[in-house]
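Q: What structure does this chain adopt?
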Amino acid sequence: AHDGRDAYMPAAGFGNGIFLVAWQSGRTGPGDIREGLTFVGDLVACRVDGSGKILDEKPLVISAAPDLQERPRIASDGKNFLVVWQDLRNGRDSSKPGPGQGYDVYAARVTAEGKVLDPDGILVCGGKGNQCNPQVAWDGKAFQVVWQDFRSGQFYEVYGGRVSAQGKALDAGGVKLAAANGGKHQRYTPDVASTGGGKSLVLWAGGHGRNADAGSVFVAD
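A:
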């Protein structure tokens, strides 16, 4: 455990002979709930070797930014890991109830030796509406990150952006990968896998009302 908190939403990745396990540490912050809930959910991780031995006596703190860091996902380039997550540090939409308005996508590299190279993370995509539910794969040239995006204010669409092995976000604002089809079909919960060579397959669910569908697209470089 980290700081005596509950653990939520774990994820794992493998690379360079090491498993990296990451999770959200904590959720509800201290205070009088009659004055409104506060939230604190840091992103932490630990390494596990091939025999199942935990290599970190205390979890590595990937991000201790304000508010919630949630839903980590992990990929490896064979040397370092990239952990991506949805993050509320930049504020919420106060016009909408609940804890889930105003997410951005952040990422941080972690070495196989347990060093966090990007403390508190780098911004992959932020802005109007939610950027949330990220997924990540190493495509042989860069990390391909995908997420569901509500910047239109009307419907979710799927966007993507690359992060270099050096930790630089390469596609400012992201690239739209799946449009909402005139607003008739939402696009959400994307996933991504790669064959290498800079190419990836992006998948998503979608639908309108009771009508559900799914789709995919290849992306390159």
